[in-house]
Amino acid sequence: MAAICAAAGLAFHALVDHHYEDVLVQWRSALATAVAVAAVVFVLGVELRRWHWALGFALLWGAVLGLIAWQTAAYNLQGNPIEWPFWSGMLAVLVATPLFQTHRDVAPDWRFWKLWQMPYDRLHSHAWTDAVIGAASLAFVGIAFLLTFLISEMFHLIGIDLIRDLLNDEWFGWMLAGAAFGGAVGLLRERDKLVSTLQRLVMIVLAVLAPVLAAALVIFLLSLAGTGLAKLWASGFSTAALMLAAAAFAVLLANAVIGNGTDDRATNPLLRWAAPVLAVAVLPLAVIAYYSMQLRIGQYGWTPERIWGLIATLIALAYGAIGLWSVVKGRRDFDDVLRPLQQKLAIGVALLALFLALPILDFGAISTRDQLARLTSGATKVEKFDWAALAYDFGPSGRAALKKLTKSPQKARADAAKAALAAKNRWDLTGPQGPVLLKPLAERLRVIPAERALPAEALERIAGTYMCSRAKACVAVWLADDRIGVIGQNEPGEATNFDFVSLNKDGRWVQGDIGRDTRPTRPEVDLSKATVTVETVEQRRILVNGVPESGAFE
Q: Residue 81 has what pLDDT?
């Protein structure tokens, strides 16, 4: 397992290694995702018994998540695959893995259409064991890096820098992380009794917290009857996110108390009473989260994030409903009713998450139609409209809508749409005046001395820096043949931004100083006979209207 994950780490690095200022090619994002997901799912789910099932399961999910990453990276201009569909796919993997492990243990073949009839105790045990092993293995990765760093510094003291240099290479870091993670998973999988004890210990520790959260939720919900919900909206926090987080913790702690089965549930009376309280409390929390989402949508319309948030609240409502039903029907033995319902809900959530991760429903198109309707009706003013979201978050539908708006007879809308399409990044479209198209860099940039032109690559790098990308005024000062000082100011009267753009050893212009050390090699000195004098040193720094803008750089 250590070798498999080390190889996967090396392959992952080879696929994602690129200049940080360039967008990663879509196929490389997809393949890197497939490699990482397949390796992790395989080592977490494999056993010698029916190991080829685990291999097929891991390769299948690697391919699925790779395709999702490909589609997500191509959706918007940033080329970032880590978006909401990707996380939805990851949720599907996390839920599907214990389902697969249970089916592998008890089923004679590949038929999956009777998943809900699998033994709950084994399914619940696999879910908790995977979580414990995954968390422990990640902790081991951190310890492995700390130990490697300690060893590298020990050898550095005696002039051997091999390990230190390896740690500075990203490929070695990914291989070390993979080997540590895979090795830790393998070691823990070989010690079933130890893992079982560790799992029980984690559940016992979490179960102790159940009465605390149960009491807090009861007091909180009763307090709302007196204070009302208005203070929730005025708190400045996302009410829906906070309620969903509280509901998730309630589900976690309730399951820690009820355990894998009737014989495994906690016997302490306080814990036994806390579990049904937590199960029932999920429903009012989910209702508050749902109401908060509806208010937000009514005020500002649909966006992909709000659609995902609404789906999360609906899942919480479903769990809250089965929790309440279980307590009403089962009373003190509510967990016997809850367990099979949780199993069916888990299967449904996995299927729903996978469906939503696939490019079947276009949340960007839904959001675009709604936001345009609000703009057309006057519910959202031009200066309050989120042009950056239309350009960068809503995908092809948003960009197509912007192109149509450029032909709008209303000049304010047309100008804003043109600015949104012309912007190279979303940050150019934020500000008190709304989206304003900046002048070309050639009109905003001064070069000192004026007669010395900037190389094309240096000009491109300056255009993308934080100093000049959004600046109304920008100045480039030649300091040497391989170093340029760059000053930018977003608005007149605001603070200025300064940094260097330098030519590195690979012949590329990069942001920052290359850190040359021009001091001559120090000769051998006999201080008892050496001549000691005081020297006055001239320094260079950039002044703006006589005021130092940069520190001394020579």
A: 78
